[in-house]
Design brief:
By secondary structure, the protein is α/β, with parallel strands linked by helices. It has six helices and seven strands, in the order αααβαβαββαβββ. The protein has a seven-stranded mixed β-sheet with strand order 3-2-1-4-5-7-6, with helices on both faces. A hairpin with a 6-residue loop joins strand 6 and strand 7.
Amino acid sequence: MPTLSNDTIRNLLAPFRAPHNTDLPDSLIDGVSTYLDLLIRWNARVSLTAIRHPEEIIQRHFGESLFTGAHLAQRLPGNAELLDYGSGPGFPGLPIQMLLPNLRVTVAESQTRKVAFLREVIRTLNLPAQAWQKRVEEMPPDRQFDAVTLRAVEKMQFTLENAKTRVRDGGWLAALVGQQADKTDAQEYRIPGSEHRRLLLWQIVPRGTIQS
């Protein structure tokens, strides 16, 4: 039996459907339910998330990821390439892949057990995403993406600067952060239901270009 009913999942995700409050398809809700069950089962033996309550997992992990994906969908071509930097158990990259199936998503994670979980989710949900089992710094120097996402990484400000180098000119950097992160030149969106977490979006333009 699923951990949460589909109706419960849909209701918990409802505040995160911005910016257009588009209805979430049944297939996406089914996928979130399966993903949640996998995460809870694996988390009992592999430390994937400190959040234990299923309802909070839906809101904090899946909701915030889908909120990010909805904002990126307005800014990216349908077949864009996206890198999830330090993906952990797959957030926000894999829910974004579920929401936008034509994206080409790479989830980057260096910890072997977490990569095993990512590959299990990708296989079970038949997602087109790819897993990179090394540090992002070990990618070829010229490997860039139309968007880079990151969330709950160590040394956030340092990592943000590294992540920017992986964004193609005109592409987007999306960071799910707390109050302490620098928002200079970023578009800021408050995470629904939170006073302390934000989505920051930077558009990366060639040096010397004036952004309108």
